[in-house]
Amino acid sequence: MTPSYLSRRVIVERLSLLNHLIGQIERLPLDDEDAFFADSRNVHTAESCLRRALEALFDIGRHILGKAYGVPAGSYRDIATLLAEKEVLDKGEEGIFVQMAGYRNRLTHVYHEVSSAELFRVCVEDLGDLASIRSAFLSWIRDNPHRIDDPLSDADGQA
Predict the structure, then answer these.
(1) I want to staple 116 with a disulfide (CB 3.0 to 4.6 A). Which of 12, 39, 43, 144 is the partner?
(2) Global pTM?
């Protein structure tokens, strides 16, 4: 792959989707476990929004690697590792993103083993990790406006 410019459109669309999905999860009754489980739609919303939010983050990461560095990533774990190698993420963020890759794979491939209680716990305890990686991407993007076909304004990333 040959490095080129990141697409502003791709970045803005994925960030917008990510922000929407995080908002959907945050609107669930995560402060009341009984209320969360009282309506089965909450579990389905949590699972769908979480999986799609992870996909959006990995899409952004893959886009950065491919366009900015001309580096293909074979797996979700590779995306996290390569982003750290390119100093898009620091080592702590890499570890978080590697864990996210594993969880995305669980949600996609062994979904039948992911319990409702586990989804609730992840939404309560780990939702901030999505925002952490989003912030790392936004910081890198703002530090590298020359790598984007049309640099982002502050409103685009809603950081």
Answers:
(1) 43
(2) 0.91
